[in-house]
Amino acid sequence: MLRWCCVYGTGLCSALVLVAGISLVLSSVFPNLLDSVVKKEVVLRNGTDSFEAWKDPPPPVYMQFYFFNLTNPLEVLDGERPAVMQMGPYTYREFRPMEEVVFLENGTKVSAVNPKTYVFQRNMSVGPESHLVRTVNIPAVTVMEKFKDSSFIANMISAYMRSSGEGLFTTRSVGELLWGYQDQLLKSLKTFKPDLDDMFGLFYKANTTNDGDYVFFTGQTNYSDFSKVDTWNQNRYLDWWTSEECNMINGTNGASFHPLVSKKETLYMFSSDLCRSLYATYVEDIIVKGLPGYRFVPPRQVFANLTENPDNAGFCVPAGNCLGSGVLNISPCKQGAPIIMSSPHFYEAEERYARAVFGMRPNRDQHQTTIDLEPFTGIVLQAAKRLQINVLVERISTFRQTGNVATVIFPVAYLNESVVIDDQSVLKLQAVLSMRTLVVNIPFMLMGLGVLLGLVFMVLVCWHKGPESSAAEREPLLNS
């Protein structure tokens, strides 16, 4: 009797465990529990790992600069196509801790500034910062563009430029072009306009300084708002563009993202370098240092012109003055300098821009901006922000320095700001994902245990139901 109780007890346990496992799978209890935990833990709050990683990112960030050296300046002045040769990379280690951190509104928001410091890495560069580059004279082009409609002033400036040897092109060192040099033309104009800064550099005043005052959402109220920008320089909207939609400040600053990232969602980011917000969409699954992730990429529509994407009408400045797809005129936020941004080598821009400059070779792997995220935690596994700085060059009749130059968007330099998760962070993330895998698989382990107990039950039943032999049958056939 006791034996049969054990047999049927095993069968009952098998059924109960199997039903429990199936119920847990169908109800998604453990995945929902984990999602609830991560929503509460991934918050910008003192003492959390996510706050420490946001405040002082552990993986090293590198900024690589590539310059385009002009090889035929005289021919360009005669109207021929510019020919450029790429120089680089010139690599800098970027340090970007959050400072002046203050929590606001019961911990739902946090204010901070994000100063960046760049340290030159000679061993990761093709040469020293003293390498010379011949490129377009951006201060001169800006001045000529500003005064082109005033003949008297234009003639005076043109005469000064001839006497001082200033022209449409200049030769400067990498360090000068990046971090600044005293420009003689600006210095002379400062006599008449004392508040004019006579220093110029592509990243002048960007080293050891911040790009503005930020207020971020902490994610305490809604996990999807984690590290999103609430205001920048006390504003929720920009004022450079000609539509409310284009002036919106959307998403994070691109360094952090909320947990539980879905392949179907659109990730929004605000870039002070581009003076606008942009977005990225899922394209493929990837593996970074053994960790699975999702790759997000800004689609072509982000920089498409009015014809391809009517939502971008506000980026036409002045209103109605639209460039082609793949380029963005940011002169309104660069003190009127004719700066045009694009992807490196005019990747995904209209073909005419790359054809207008000899030496452009757009390539997806080298020139596409990418963001690789671990979807459960939202941690950035790998990212590469790639942008090209160009200048609109055109013939200006009041300035002989422009000669017969053809109108062209001239490439000056492009940058690749990249980061890859460090090994210590990989180990921490692997532990979190291993624990998640274990917890999520508990229902399946219960189902497996239920099946195993069921098999044991079947074996015991079959074994005990076999016919028992009688005493006579157990007697030997032959007696000695």
TrEMBL record:
It is found in: Membrane. The chain crosses the membrane at residues 442-463. Keywords: Glycoprotein, Membrane, Transmembrane, Transmembrane helix. It comes from the Eukaryota. InterPro entries: CD36_fam, LimpII. Its main location: membrane. GO terms for cellular component: lysosome; membrane. GO terms for biological process: protein targeting to lysosome; receptor-mediated endocytosis. The keyword Nucleus does not apply. Pfam families: CD36 (PF01130). GO terms for molecular function: scavenger receptor activity. PANTHER family: LYSOSOME MEMBRANE PROTEIN 2, SCAVENGER RECEPTOR CLASS B TYPE-1 SR-B1. Belongs to the CD36 family. This is Scavenger receptor class B member 2. It comes from Muraenolepis orangiensis (Patagonian moray cod). The lineage of its organism: Eukaryota, Metazoa, Chordata, Craniata, Vertebrata.
